[in-house]
Amino acid sequence: MKSHRILLVSILLLLGLVVIAFSAQSKKQVPRLSNGKPDFTGVWDHPRVADITKDANGSCAGETPGCKNIGSGDLPFTPAGKAENDKKDRFDYGAHCLPWGYVRSFATPYPHAYVSHPDRLAIMWEQDNAFHMVPTDGRPLPKDPDPSWRGTSVGHWDGDTLVIETVGFNGKTWLDTAEHPHSDQLKVTERLTRTDYDHINYELIMEDSKFYSKPIKNVRTFVLMKPGQELYEYSCAENNRCEGGHCTPSDVQK
Amino acid sequence: MVKKLLALVVVLVGAATAVYAHHSFAAEFDRQKPVKVNGKIVKVEWMNPHIWIYVDGKDEISGRTAVWGFSAGPPSTLSRRGIKRDFLKVGDVVKVDGFLAKDGSANGSGGQITFPDGRSVFTAAAEDAVPNTSK
């Protein structure tokens, strides 16, 4: 009887050790760059945020579990912002395969990737197969950048958090698919913290004094995609058959 | 396999409640005009930004017969859902539940495809309108 008890305790102890060993292995360390800062390199799944005012919880855009968005709630429109927001039948630039813009690119139905280097961060979005460079070599934001769809960015470190500031937008894009507008005065600040191997905490602050009286904030969770998951090719114009509500027929329909 | 696909459909349909998509579903298709087309697949265009499936058949609701074109999700989304490019083949008999194009042409958003053996997959982009497939 006593020997049975000893055997049982031994088995339980062994099982406990195995569990500890496995959990230690799954808690991989956050990788570091040669300058000691966190490395964000990888394919990341983000929450699909069709409306920045709303929360999202659950599946990511690429259907990895665990994505999240804490939405802004009601937007603090200025009179000019409200007038723009109330306009009907605005030109749906995305439906015509024009760039989705910086803020919306992180909220698409498809994942994105980062490649980190001590001097720069490269962002690659599956949506439109677009890329964006963020110098992190200490240079300041340019004073008067040419207006563009995705703006001009620089990044700096606040401890282990990468802070990216982006300005110089052309004002032709929206903040989300719900068509919340922004002007050419938009400034975007992102704070990226790799909280553990599999997650990035992503704070997004949008300031646009022309259209909004206060900064707008979203807080999102990005999840590292499983090994083997890659970005796909995405060619928007290839087979866009119902542009603007008018469908072109295929040869089998003629 | 069938059970797995059905479970996937339930999850995806549950997740797909908004109406916004790449191509702005509302700008191109009319959610007030559902179609239920029974027929045979005559062509599959496995392409971005949305795959297109062409079905020669009849719409149960309007009685209209045509080669119908259905816009579905992009290849990346469908692949990640386990729907690969050989899943829908020319010659397959299917029922497509979707919504008619705004221009009234024989095109639509193809939300749900059902095979004669009962297999059913949600094929639209994640945020397109979800067809009511109840009889």
3D architecture notes:
The complex is a heterodimer of chains A (254) and B (135). In chain A, strands 1, 2, 3, 4, 5, 6, 7, 8, 9, 10 and 11 form an eleven-stranded antiparallel beta sheet that branches. The radius of gyration of chain A is 23 Å and the shape is globular. Chain A contains three helices and eleven strands, in the order αβββααββββββββ. Chain A is of the alpha+beta class. Chain A has one domain. In chain A, strand 7 and strand 8 form a beta hairpin. Chain A has helices at residues 2-26, 79-86, 102-105, and strands at residues 42-45, 56-58, 67-70, 112-117, 120-125, 130-135, 152-158, 161-167, 187-196, 199-207, 216-224. Chain B has 135 residues and is an alpha+beta fold. Chain B has one domain (2-122): OB fold (Dihydrolipoamide Acetyltransferase, E2P), CATH 2.40.50. Helix content of chain B is 18%, strand content 39%. Chain B has three helices and six strands. Chain B has helices at residues 2-15, 25-28, 75-80; strands at 29-45, 52-59, 65-71, 93-101, 107-114, 120-122. Chain B has a five-stranded mixed barrel. In chain B, strand 5 and strand 6 (120-122) form a beta hairpin. The longest helix of chain B is centred in the N-terminal third of the chain and has 14 residues, at 2-15. Chain B starts with a helix and ends in a 13-residue tail after the last strand. Chain A binds chain B through residues 48, 50-51, 58-59, 61-63, 92, 94-95, 97, 109-110, 126, 177-178, 229, 232-247, 249-250, 252-253, and chain B through 15, 18, 20-24, 27-29, 42-43, 45, 47-52, 54, 66-67, 69, 71, 74-77, 79-81, 101-103, 105-107, 125-127.
